[in-house]
Model the fold of this input.
Amino acid sequence: MVIKKVGLGEGSALPVGVPVPWPSATPPTG
Done:
């Protein structure tokens, strides 16, 4: 879900594995 988005560079300010609302730039595909 959202967890894997972190590794793509989106919202890289968050540690991997933290489910957080993304800045509507790229909604989670999960």
Remarks:
- The two ends are 4 Å apart (CA to CA).
- The mean pLDDT is 57.
